[in-house]
Amino acid sequence: ILLLNRAMNFPTTQIQEILEPVSAQVSEFIQLHSMGEKGYPIPDITDACGAVIANIENLINVAEREVVISPEDRYMAEQMPEALIPLKCSPDQLRQSAQALKADPLSKAGRVQLMDACRNILLGTYRVLIVNDECGLRKLENNIKHVMDSFYCVCGAQSVQDAVAFIKNIQEPFMRVNRDVVARAKILTDSEAGNALLFHADTLRRLLEPFVNALKIVFVTKQRNDSSHVHAEKTRTFFAKRMMAEFEDVLRYLRWRRGDSHTASAGPSGVGAAGGWLYRMRHGGLLDRARDWVASDRETVDSLGYMFVEEVLNEAQTLADLLPEGAGLRGDVCAQCVEVARHAETLSNLRRNGQGASQQAAELKAALNRKLDRLVSLCERAAREHENSVLLPDDMHGLILNVREWLAHPNTNLHTGSRSLEAIINLSHNFGRQ
Fold first, then answer.
1. Residue range 335-361, pLDDT digits in tens
2. Cβ contacts of residue 61 below 8 Å, gap of 6+?
3. Checking CA distances to 235, which of 1, 62, 144, 357 falls within 20 to 30 Å?
């Protein structure tokens, strides 16, 4: 019964769908065994055993074929033969049990053989499915790490030709991995892990275009000896860190299990991943941990719990630095960071003086929580605005070149020039509305 309960608690719906009919048949055998233990004769189970044996032998053949067609998978080659041992024992045990019970419906030996077969069926099926699922998961993880390595190469490209070649080679593997992650998310039985994977996969898909554009802008501005190239490099680094953080979160949630919420939501130690950071802040526990410090009556800014408040402030400041100087939103984020730090210091002083439970402290706690909410909202807007600002200059650059070429040669490139001019007007209106 313990095996039966364990077998029905699997991470994916695919494994559940395979196990449910097996578990149902095993449950019938267990009920028959229970009848026999109470002195009731067990009916002929030859046909039922034959159907189960056919399914088991089919599963064994499929598992062995997987080992043959995946010779490079060492985990499969090492683990699958061992997982199949109990499963291979069960057909003979079922046959012997059916023969014994047919000859004597009250046969104790037949009942023992039946229970041994049930145990081996559940244990073997459990192990085979786990090994197969683990192999698929390891393959997906390796593909993700390969894509991550490719992104590191892209960031280190020294020429525009190298960057173009890297981007061309990485886009197809990236989209394939993204689809595989989405497919994995949809079959997980745990909705929290599934939703997190879907969120991070969608974020990665959205970030690809701004990252590519940011990379192009680095090379476009490289020949200029001004601050635009420095800002372009900061923008490229920002998006690279965001994507690496999202990949790390995908890898973490692929291994997520119930009860692992703190491990899963802790996030990468690296900073700058605004999208993943905002998600972890709202849904993964970072904001909750910052609030835990606020809710305490004794913790000061020197305590360990304050590091979560500091992490919120540091990341918000990093995000603000990427916005153009003089931008209103940049000033709002910075001002809000100052306000949060000031309120936290005031609250800390009250606690040092033994007034952590006073009415003044309670009012400061409420105000600090409101300011944290405001800061998260501003950072969310800042992240979106920065993505839009990266998309615009690169698109505009190409369009303006087309229009200038048309103006220089009015009798040629008429269609391309007029379409580019129209696109510039539309982009300008859209950006103005944003």
1. 999 999 999 999 989 998 888 889 999
2. none
3. 144
